[in-house]
Write a structure and sequence with these properties.
Chains A, B: Keywords: Metal-binding, Oxidoreductase, Zinc. Chains A, B: Belongs to the zinc-containing alcohol dehydrogenase family. Chains A, B: Pfam families: ADH_N, ADH_zinc_N. The structure is a homodimer. Chain A is α/β, with parallel strands linked by helices. The first copy, chain A, folds into 2 domains: about 1-150 and about 295-345, Quinone Oxidoreductase, Chain A, domain 1; about 155-290, NAD(P)-binding Rossmann-like Domain (Rossmann fold), CATH 3.40.50.720. In chain A, about 30% of the residues lie in helices and about 25% in strands. Chain A contains 12 helices and 19 strands. In chain A, strands 3, 5, 6, 9, 10, 18 and 19 form a 7-stranded mixed β-sheet that branches. Chain A has a 6-stranded parallel β-sheet with strand order 13-12-11-14-15-17, with helices on both faces. In chain A, helix 5 crosses helix 11 (about 295-305) and helix 6 (about 180-190) packs parallel to helix 7. The longest helix of chain A is centred in the C-terminal third of the chain and has 13 residues, at about 295-305. The radius of gyration of chain A is 20 Å and the shape is globular. In chain A, about 55% of the residues are buried. The interface of A and B includes residues 268, 274, 277, 284 and 285 of A. Strand 16 (about 275) of chain A pairs antiparallel with strand 16 of chain B, so a sheet runs across the interface.
């Protein structure tokens, strides 16, 4: 079969690899019908050393189960399924608490010996814990929105949940990528009253307004912080969702959050150290929360609203390609010509 | 009157200063009957530059109201009162939410033109918002415990509340100073099941056991983290309260907290930057919370349990002195010969 491999920064190829097959009795093999490129894929696309060890890419997919191991009981050949961006056993202490990203036996697609999802097919470890059966056909018009349950909608939802967004909340969302825009949608869905979207790409911030943003701030840094404070009686918003992952975005979050409020991060931090001392977080009683989103348990929570059309997170896809077009899709997303590229292998 | 002034690191003196008097109609003047030395006083005692501008010291007190401004309505001359370590107007948006440390008109004793509490008397700004009348006599046996409501018990309570301690929680408390020990008491009071106290001074950790610690870990750093994990099936505790304020204590908290758990800091951070990235907090979904404790609203919450003897936080005092003995008290606490010194001016 064909799969997407990243050989080094900027060097992405679609190549023949061995077909996936069952290895453990808890495995399934899934033929992928829809996958996509994630904003987080752009970090390795930008920085991976050309070390001769290519990485299988892609961690979001919908597909049709082809074969299941003898221990798999919840899905069977022919089922259409969606997978979260981490696989998990569904039975360990962390999975039972809903923190599937800390699963004792879990992993991320494309890491270690796990396949990537920008491919024709994939071996799914712990199929029962990982896959969720979808009650639609593989060519349903809902597929783009359902695909966002793999990662970006669930991640936006995680940001809002961890941020403590409830009815009436004031929220700033930093970043107009797919996760930022879907954090807007998630915050709106949870009842936020004021949602300030910080982003400077009009097509994206327009979609953000459609998703529920009440204000858009194009400025960054101190000017951006000032603009958020002007919209909030000088105080900042109770919740700030940081959906970028850079240090400047973190600093912007510290500046835009209200005393006693919460910074919820879902942008993968490209830094390790950041200010957390007296002047930044401590004296002001700012909470820092968020993290890698355990989207598996969120699928059940968000699925009904996607199926009944209450929300349409699939609008973040503004381009579609087949597998051959994936390298071009990476370049378009890196150049910010595309927001998010849907892949039909 | 006499007051305590810090001229520079190690140079602390009790000197004559002008008697306090009413300045604003919202002020009160209080004759102090009980004050104390705080672990946080030791940071400036250790580091203050000898810049010719002495600092008034002390931020915890009980006293008798001598005089009130014309706008003061909740306390009157003769009342015994306790004050939190920050004064606050009680009416601003933050005060109404209970975040008195962010009061628009608030301040900390000893900063700016505010008097210090290690003195014979003190001018209290915003007396209605700041002072709480106590239903006991100035020589009550409950005075030590009531005095901890100014700061250390309220701060330990804040750590436990922000950490999300509830019935059945597992908690690590880093630090066997007064705040750490009272965080143990607060966690126990809120129903924590397992409380691991990290400290190496036996007299203190023995008091910690009396307050509710189920385990004591004397090791620090990696050895300390390993010991906490051995007590918790390898996972760490759901809550870690950091009551020291150093970077090593922060790192210990990151190592001792369970994935998905919460680090609640109340030790005043002596660092600004710390690890918050993928490996430390982000991938593990660790919350970082806590901060300067708004003890004013906690007084009403904790007072009944102190009055009826359910808790006895005053046990943290292991020495008593008059004002003349305050410099010696600082030296004893800095040398860890005293846990916390009570001052009867």
């Amino acid at each position: 079969m064909r799969a997407t491999l990243l050989y080094g920064a900027g060097d992405i190829r679609v190549e023949e690899v061995p077909d996936p097959r069952l290895v453990h009795p808890t495995d399934a093999v899934v033929r992928i019908t829809a996958a996509c490129i994630c904003g987080s894929d752009l970090w390795p696309f930008d920085t991976k050393p050309a070390d001769g060890v290519p990485t299988r890419m892609g961690h979001e997919f919908i597909g049709v189960v082809e074969e299941t191991g003898t221990d798999v009981t919840t899905v069977r050949a022919g089922d259409l399924v969606v997978a979260p961006w981490v696989f998990s056993d569904g039975t360990c202490e962390y999975c039972r608490e809903g923190l599937t990203t800390s699963c004792t036996h879990g992993g991320i697609w494309g890491y270690g010996d796990a396949d990537g999802a920008q491919a024709e097919a994939i071996r799914v470890p712990h199929a029962d814990g990982t896959l969720v059966k979808l009650p639609v056909a593989a060519d349903s018009a809902l597929i783009p929105s359902l695909l966002t349950l793999s990662d970006v909608f669930g991640t936006g939802h995680h940001a809002a949940v961890r941020g403590g967004v409830t009815a009436g909340s004031s929220v700033t969302v930093i970043g107009d990528g797919a996760v930022g825009l879907l954090a807007v949608l998630a915050a709106k869905r949870l009842g936020a009253e004021q949602i300030v979207l910080m982003g400077r790409h009009k097509a994206r911030t327009d979609l953000g307004r459609e998703f529920g943003a009440t204000d858009v701030v194009a400025e960054r840094g101190d000017a951006g912080i000032t603009a958020v404070r002007e919209l909030t009686a000088g105080q900042g918003t109770t919740v700030v969702i940081e959906a970028v992952g850079t240090r400047p975005a973190y600093d912007q979050a510290v500046g835009a959050v209200r005393n006693g409020g919460t910074i919820s991060r879902v942008g993968v931090p490209q830094y390790e150290d950041a200010p957390v001392g007296i002047g930044s977080l401590f004296f002001r009683n700012i909470r820092l929360t968020g993290g890698a989103a355990p989207t598996r348990p969120y699928i059940a929570e968000l699925l009904p609203d996607v199926l009944n059309g209450t929300v349409d997170p699939g609008k973040v896809f503004d381009a579609t390609t087949d597998l051959t077009g994936v390298p071009t899709g990476y370049r378009q997303m890196a150049a910010r010509e595309s927001l998010k590229v849907l892949v039909h292998p």
